[in-house]
Protein 1
Amino acid sequence: MNYHALKMPAQVYGGQGAAAAVGEIAQGHKKAVLFTDRGISANGLLQKPLKQLKRAGVEVALFDDLPTEPSVYQADEVIRRFRAERPDLIVAVGGGSVMDVAKLCSVLDTDEYTVFDLLESPGAARKTVPAVMLPTTAGTGSEATPNSIVLVPEKELKIGIVNPQMIADYVILDAELLSKLPPKVCAATGVDALAHAIECYTSNKATPFSDLYALGALKLIYENLENAYSQPENLAAKQNMLLAAFYGGVSIAAAGTTAVHALAYPLGGKYHIAHGVSNAMMLTSVMRFNKPYCTDRLAKVCDALVPQPGLDKNAKADWVLDWLDRIVQQVHIPTDLKEFGVRPEDLETLVTLGMDCKRLLNNNCRVVTEADARKLYADLLLN
Ligand SMILES: NC(=O)c1ccc[n+]([C@@H]2O[C@H](COP(=O)([O-])OP(=O)(O)OC[C@H]3O[C@@H](n4cnc5c(N)ncnc54)[C@H](O)[C@@H]3O)[C@@H](O)[C@H]2O)c1
Ligand SMILES: [Zn+2]
């Protein structure tokens, strides 16, 4: 096969105040389930969407207790409650945790299969309820991807259920929803978006479509992440980060992430380290490991961010790797595994779990052997 696909949400709204568009989208619908979590509702972020839905004459069932980084069992419990409501619209206001469960609901309003079936056969599901995503982190890019990530506790792993039917129908990118985003969450989710973009740009599955969005995301992150983090009132920087995260999601849909995410998953699955933090831990070491196999690509990233005609390809690639190191430090993400209770004797468990994530390791430009994974984890654990 030698063709590429770009599957993305049908309608995307962007700009400060864009959350009001939810009323326009909801016109003609009868009942919406509005998904969110306690952190978001406590910050008063639901007032505007709720007002707009009411104005559009739509009945709303509010689910404001969605879990953070959900397990498959927690997702199943929400899906059961959702089905009992019989809605004809889904509205998700939240980070990746909320959006991922909302996306599962969009294909699980049925007796035919459950979320447990989708772990084995993700392609079985068909969308029956349209979904609107309003991300409040920038971010996972879940608003653009066909993925939903759930923790499977008995495997101690986070598993991605991937089905293009789960791609959202509508996306609204409004920085006002990020006005009270805690800086720690801003940092971790921003580096997650960075990991998506650089992994997709160097993925074996990269396409001209994913390249365009991945490079666009990298440039926006280069110009805005530090400001979005250190100036919480800077909504212009946050709006650009929302765009970057969305672009990162589009590039995931086209190309897929690689070994950074593969080796980070056990850190989330077994030690419950937040998704963005675990990716920040693996980001620079895996990209340095990959460098000999993607020097040209990294040099192109340098050309796109800050053209430096005096440097050769090797030096340009190093410049990008140094930037990755620097940005993780600038936004103060803790990257010492010991701080999170991971002990040197856990090394072999991490290797086994990390090597299990074949779906993403197969996308990596350099083959990752068990010995390579052991060295990458050991560098984090034993230094
Ligand atoms: N589907 C995908 O393509 C995809 C991609 C990457 C990650 N993920 C998944 O997404 C989840 C992580 O999502 P996340 O990093 O966006 O964080 P999150 O959704 O887990 O939110 C983290 C915390 O921040 C709070 N929060 C979020 N937005 C806020 C705001 N604007 N103001 C105040 N508080 C706010 C939440 O209440 C929560 O306590 C993980 O489960 C991860 O595996 C999915
Ligand atoms: Zn991610």
Protein 2
Amino acid sequence: MKNNITRNIENIYIHLPFCQKKCFYCSFPVHAIGKNKQDNEHFDNIQQTYLKYIKQEIVQTNIMLFKHHNQIWQKKPLKSIYFGGGTPSLFQPEYIKEILNLIQSEGFFIQDDTEITMECDPGTFDAEKIQFYEELKINRISLGIQSFNDKILQNLNRPQNAQTNYEAIQILKNSAKFKYLSNVSIDLIMNQPQMTCSKDKNNLSINLNEVDQIWDQDLEQVVQLKPGHISIYSLAIEPGSYFYEKNNFREGQFPLPSDERAADNFIKTHQKLSPIYNHYEISSYVRSDLNQPKHNPIYWEGNKDFLAFGMGASSLLNYRRYTRPKTVTRYYEYVEQLNKNPNFYLENGEDESDIQSQIESILMGRLRTFQGLDLLDIKNSYGEDIYNIICNKIEMLLLKSPYLIFQNQRYLKLKCPEGYLVCDDIVAEISYHLQKKIFRNKNK
Ligand code: SF4
């Protein structure tokens, strides 16, 4: 791999981990504060402490990268800042302002075209808060709707109901006249379990047909609303989530839909949305170029540097991943260490710099997208031998996979939508082949 002499930072992720309660499918690093607690003094104290530490982390990272290692790292005008969580819209907007001001005073350039995204959950913001976001030049909201159906929302242990969802959408519709806050993305979850998971005895059971019907209604509803961007995730059952640990749910097994049924849902969803939306990434649909996000695509590039701050957040810097501790207490200890020794940060990364990991990450990221991968990038970065090994494997795969497209020995992509369903398999086959060849060449 030819290493660049200097590397640029253009994208920042800020993790704000507070949620009202933990959703049953959630395996993210979150800190639940309890429902209706967002305005109480105790939560304000918690936020102030978190704010203090995240600000220290930003300052120390700035010293470490751009003063101690400024021969490598350079700041460029920021393309994106993403407030993710958790539920960032629970965080006081005044404190968001402090974070943005600090980012600027530390020498990062926020411009009018810097995309600033705020993940928001219905029931955690009002018109006044949205007006404040506009004043902060936050220009994109990612709204966690997940479903328009009360039973499904209860089943997922979401803090909101369908009515709260509609109220949140109405508040955002009124912001359409704003100068900055013009982009809204809606998140939905498909492939719900066909049984009642809620502890609420009044929640009636759901059978498979009803789950399917509700999904049709959710899709119809989102089409009517016409947001600029839609993210549709299949319900993932990850270790650490309530569904995994307490309900023993596993993807593809009852009460979740079978793999075949989940694949049918994926195709059905594509068919419903594609007349209006461009299905540009496995889980993402965009209505026009104006609604195309800038932040999420950095993850799909697979090798793009970005800075992240906050509990549980991961940065990727020069093929090393730096992940902070996943509880607030341990995160605060981590920042204390950083205050004593800013290089503590660089000493704790996970190395992803071997060729195998790099290429796997690039393939996995780019084959998720409609654009796919330009293999000339691989040739230029990793040399002719690696390029030839990959091309040979692609030629073999083309004989058995009708969903792989390879143009001019250069552009590799998956046929949309069917190809997206085999993305993991294709990446695994190419990676395995590459690993075997690299290993054999090393031992020659
Ligand atoms: S709102 Fe999001 S981050 Fe918070 S518990 Fe639910 S899924 Fe997790």
